[in-house]
Amino acid sequence: MAAGDTSERKLDQTPTWAVAGVCAVIIIVSIALEKVLHKLGKFFTDKRKKALFEALEKVKAELMILGFISLILTFSQYYIAKICIPIDVADTMLPCAKKGKYAKEGKGARRLLLLYEHGRSLASAYGSSCKKGKVPIITVDGLHQLHILIFFLAVLHVAYSAITMALGRLKTRGWKQWEEETSSHDYEFSNDPARFRLTHETSFVRAHTSFWTRIPLFFYIGCFFRQFFRSVSKSDYMTLRNGFINLHLAPGTKFNFQKYIKRSLEDDFQVVVGVSPVLWASFVIFLLLNVNGWQTMFWASIIPLVIILAVGTKLQAILTKMALEITERHAVIQGIPLVQASDKYFWFSKPSLMLHFIHFALFQVLCETLRILITYFLYFHAKHAG
What we know:
two-stranded antiparallel ribbon, two-stranded antiparallel sheet, elongated, 15 helices, about 5% strand
């Protein structure tokens, strides 16, 4: 049997040990994954981590969606490949330059062009059912690559979300020491409610107010640059903790604010770990607008950066406005400055909107990372195949 015929052997010409071995590996991996998810869910239930358990359920739902996508693509790929369109229509809105521009493009474009030409050559193998002057709307090989793209998109999104959660927990762990200080005698003495202080002498007001904070233009410029040098200081934590306790609990109540933040982080993780219909729609729009010459890659890289910087600036602006309101209400305070948290500080008075912006930015960064990985994977695949 020739080498070309060997590469196209059907199942009836494949050794039974090879078929059984491959099936056994796939089944073992699938069962192991199911057991791991089950044990993880039981662990979250035993620890009463309701938010993390619901996040795990979202991960399972995404895996189920991936299963349906895989099933649909597997059974419909040859039917989709039989849909024929005119060549001039197939040559519109291409993601890579055509062959006529080969000599004019740079090294990066030539790499993408190699992928394009490789895909066009594969299309001819499946285009025999199309009449002259027409080509398949998507080849079977193109559908297979799309299958890989969607699979890695969902898997890497879960991985990115888990990394974000881990970094958030690492950040809040550093606040545990500050929370423990609230039970010490030194803290009670330095923040005695009977002790009077001028507002501008408190560390929170000093850190967030200066001459430029009352000028609108310099206010946001200062908040923009401040996010690179200061995240959450000790005075910020203590002031926000005091404001939360006075708003929701009786003043002087012993309350572990750091644990509350950890639980809130788990609730936010439940939102971030899912791929909503809006994110799937943004992914489809990204594929649609990924046209050669439209600089889609540039905008796809800039938008997440702009969102993250805007969110960071807004958070710093919220703290600064709280400090300014303290100075406007009182000249003298007792104990810790009392901030009044309110939804009015956030965009459209919706704090959850900032979380959705972060979620969207995270997803866009993931799409850009995945695009780079898939591009180089297909480039080396085409290089070795050709």
